[in-house]
Design a protein that fits this description.
Chain lengths: 227, 203
């Protein structure tokens, strides 16, 4: 990687993190949404502590999945609308690298806070320390996949000039494997018949594949969209 | 240095917009692209900027630099101002300086030249349309690139702003740069004219 490409990556990463931290940046929106989903479910299910503890990891994963989709819509669209994307494409950094920087900033600003609050929210669901830790660990391994799969959807929505729900509709089906292996790894850590290593390894593999293919696919979508 | 576009053919939405357009712009010179709305002025600039792939033809900068494409040596000033409302004027400019590389002069000097020196700490969301345009122009000054592709550069600028634009463009040409501008009004600097006619098959 050339020096110019590297400085472009860093500049974009810092800018997106700064934007997320500013008022209206939406860094906290995901966490608040996560909190709301997780607090609402015990109200709906009733005061069954055993049931809550059993489905707790699944609820946390579902909440985190939905919360991480929340800000995806703006991930590429905001840069496309104000013309920044044109200049990003003209920079020395390849578009793939620029999109990887955006995905990394998005994960740091929205994915990592979800991982951080998951153990706290676990308390609301009657999870013990071990289970809460397991959920946080699986979220740490799985949320990069959600962000990078989401990046493809966000880029496609821009390329097709459709916004809003399209991203969620495109992305949600693709996140199903992440959800399945994330929850099964968390459950395996708490106790169960499946060893923890197998689903967790697959979860990590899903994340690695998404990190590699996400920016490339998103860049291809954007290039194709402008032709 | 010479920017040479040869035989550019481009379809947009199934319609032929550029039909074998060829033009040269030499270093130190400016060319104003004119033509009615929809004649393909913006498309021509975007093709040269590498944002749209032409169906045929190519734009090259001679002498060619194997390490850098035309896009990497060009500034593109489009209709929209690529600014983030939540960032201050200086932060917006500093980002583009860092992203586009080639730090050249400070942000402060560029902001002074476009008349935004006093507003450097203001969030860009509070800028008027003309001030946003000035901030976009500051980007061209803060990062040195020889080719300027300007799409209606004077839009939203007041009389003083247009005078500033003239000074900035003149200085760029004197420094050996070249300008290709799509415009309806006079550019204000000595420039060749390239008229884009109605493409074949158009209305």
């Amino acid at each position: 990687m050339s020096g110019r490409a590297k400085s472009g990556f860093a500049a974009l990463l810092v800018r997106d993190l700064r934007l997320a931290a500013r008022v209206g940046g939406g860094a906290l929106t995901g966490v608040l949404f996560f909190l709301i989903v997780v607090t609402l479910i015990p109200f709906a299910l009733g005061p069954d502590m055993v049931l809550l503890a059993r489905i707790g990891p699944a609820i946390l994963w579902l909440g985190a999945l939905l919360a991480s989709l929340l800000a995806l819509d703006r991930l590429v669209a905001s840069d496309a609308e104000d013309g920044s994307l044109d200049l990003i494409r003209m920079g020395s950094a390849p578009l793939e690298l620029a999109l990887a920087a955006k995905a990394a900033a998005h994960w740091l600003a929205t994915g990592l806070p979800l991982v951080a609050v998951a153990p706290l929210l676990g308390l609301l669901l009657n999870l013990d320390g071990r289970a809460a830790g397991a959920v946080a660990l699986t979220l740490l391994a799985g949320t990069p996949a959600l962000t990078c799969i989401g990046l493809i959807g966000a880029a496609l929505a821009v390329a097709l000039r459709r916004g809003g729900l399209l991203t969620a509709v495109l992305v949600l089906p693709l996140t199903v494997p992440v959800l399945i292996f994330g929850v099964s790894a968390a459950n395996a850590a708490i106790g169960g018949t499946v060893p923890f290593g197998a689903p967790f390894a697959i979860l990590c593999a899903l994340s690695l594949v998404a990190i590699v293919t996400g920016p490339v696919a998103a860049a291809a979508a954007l290039r194709h969209g402008d032709d | 240095m010479i920017l040479r576009a040869s035989g550019l053919v481009c379809h947009r939405g199934g319609r032929l917009v550029l039909d074998g357009v060829s033009l040269d712009v030499a270093g130190g010179g400016a060319v104003a692209v004119t033509g009615r709305n929809g004649a393909g002025k913006s498309t021509l600039l975007r093709v040269i900027a590498g944002l749209i792939r032409p169906d045929a033809g190519a734009a090259v900068l001679e002498p060619s630099d194997p390490d850098r494409s035309v896009a990497e040596q060009a500034h593109y000033l489009g209709h929209r101002d690529p600014l983030k409302p939540a960032l201050t004027v200086r932060e917006n400019l500093d980002f583009w300086r860092a992203f586009l590389g080639r730090e050249d002069g400070g942000s402060e000097a560029a902001l002074e030249r476009v008349g935004l020196g006093d507003l450097a700490g203001l969030p860009a969301g509070y800028l008027s349309a003309g001030q946003r345009r000035r901030l976009s122009l500051a980007r061209l000054l803060a990062v040195r690139r020889p080719v300027w592709l300007l799409d209606e550069p004077a839009s939203a600028l007041d009389a003083a702003g247009q005078e500033m634009l003239r000074r900035v463009m003149t200085a760029h040409l004197e420094g050996g740069g070249l300008i290709l501008a799509a415009t309806h009004g006079p550019l204000g600097i000595p420039a060749g004219e390239f008229h884009l006619g109605a493409p074949a098959g158009g209305p």
